[in-house]
Structures are given as C-alpha cells and as structure tokens.
Design a protein that fits this description.
Blueprint: H1 2-17, H2 23-39, H3 43-47, H4 54-66, H5 71-83, H6 90-104, E1 107-114, H7 120-134, E2 137-144, E3 151-155, E4 160-164, H8 165-177
Parallel strand pairs: 1-2
Antiparallel strand pairs: 1-3, 3-4
Helix pairs in contact: 1-6, 2-6, 4-5
C-alpha cells in the first residue's frame, strides 16, 4: 500500500507538469519502458541495489531515458528514485501515470482474453459493448488464452467481464451441485 501511495505522488507530479500535447508521447514512452523492463528482467532490481555503485545505476537509467521522447522528465524521475533507493516503484508509477493520461482523454485500457483469434467484426462488437459499459473509449490489449474454451474475458483495473465458456460451465456445474 505504501508503494502505491508513493507511486501515486510521483505519477501525479509528472502528470501535472506536462501539457496535454505531450500525453501521446508519454504513453509511447511508457510502452517503451515496459518493453525494456520485460526484456531485462533484473534491470529494476539491479538499479535499486546497493551492491551497484550509485554512479553506475544513474548512468544505466540515464541511458534508458535518452532513448525516450520525454528525456528530461524520465531522467529527473530516475535520478530521484535511484538516490532515494525507490527505483523498484517505477512499474507502479508508469501504470498509474498511464491511467491518469488515458483517463484525462476518457479512455481506458482493457485486457481482452479470447480463446482463439477473432474476426475484426467480432472484436469491434466486443469493443463497442465494453465501451458502452465503462462509458469510455477502449484501447484493447488482446491475448489468446485457450483455457477459457470460448467467449472472452475483459479486464480493466476495476472491472472484469467474464463471458467465457469456462466460466459458464463452472456456474452450470455449481447450479447442478446445489
């Protein structure tokens, strides 16, 4: 909980310091950071480690920041986090910052799990229905998960819509048991 509150302070500070014209570039930077952190799994841990000299940790973070559009924002944030030994909070910060930026544009990121590849028409219908429910424009991140058998599961940070065959079979099983 403490880290979530800390992340919120940093993400709000960044959000309030940028003009709305920079929102798209901030979202692109966030996507790029997620790729870097996924590709180099120990990067965050090593950048927060006392075993690595602070100069090296800052140099690594500055190199990452140099690849981003909003270099100065990220350089300043990384520098502060490293000096305070809080770099491990960076994933929470970028998640919260993304949410703030998307929310300001009345958009929401939705993870859509489907059992198999769907037609564009089906995806458009699902997207429209989700958009109606959450009353925001939807940005879909589509993942194939054969375990759901059929249908879909849509998740935002505060809502889950489970229209999967697997879920319906489990509900049916429970109703029979009762």
């Amino acid at each position: 909980m403490k880290n979530i509150l800390l992340a919120r302070r940093y993400s709000l500070a960044i959000y309030k310091s940028i003009e709305s014209e920079k929102h798209d570039s901030i979202l692109k930077d966030i996507s790029a950071l997620r790729v870097v952190f996924a590709q180099y799994k120990d990067l965050i841990k090593n950048t927060d480690s006392y075993l690595v000299a602070i100069e090296k940790r800052i140099a690594v973070a500055q190199t990452i920041a140099d690849t981003l559009t909003n270099k100065e924002i990220w350089k300043n944030l990384f520098d502060i986090l490293i000096k305070r030994h809080k770099f491990s909070v960076i994933p929470l910060i970028i998640d919260d910052l993304e949410h703030l930026v998307l929310d300001s544009a009345n958009k929401a990121k939705v993870l859509l799990k489907v059992a198999h590849k769907q037609s564009d028409e089906t995806i458009t219908k699902i997207k429209s229905k989700i958009s109606d429910i959450i009353e925001k424009d939807v940005i879909l991140d589509i993942v194939t998960d054969p375990q759901i058998i059929g249908g879909f599961i849509a998740e935002t940070e505060s809502l889950q819509i489970d229209g999967s065959v697997k879920n319906n079979l489990e509900k049916f099983k429970l109703s029979i048991i009762k």
